[in-house]
Every structure is written in structure tokens, then in C-alpha cells.
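Example 3.2
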Amino acid sequence: MKSSSPTYTIPTEPVFFDHLLMNLGKTITAVPINESFKGKLTGVANHQQLSIGDLKHHIGFPQVSYFIE
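Structure, written as C-alpha cells:
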């Protein structure tokens, strides 16, 4: 039976990804190319999800230069 879910890969930096996972549930500041977002890290998959108030920001890895704990 064929799965209906898409399969894909994204380039990641393993250490960066591991550090994000270690901060899951904590407040961080993610710094993309042209602005920064401070919020609770609520998801890490093929992107990071920051919850800021009632809004959930989904930020792709290639856009994030760094993050601050």
C-alpha cells in the first residue's frame, strides 16, 4: 500500500538541529536574515515553530542565521 504522505529531505546542520531540540519548550530568539523573533520554541521538524502569544511562526532552517537561548 502506497503512503499518501509526501516524502522529502531538507539540508540541515546536525549540531544546530540538536541544539534546537535541546531548547524545545524554552523561550529563544530566532534571528533570520532581516529580523528577529522571540518566543517559545514549540516545534522542531523540517522547520522551527515559535509561539508568540496566540501566533505560531513557522521558520525554515535556511532562513535562520542563529538563535539565542
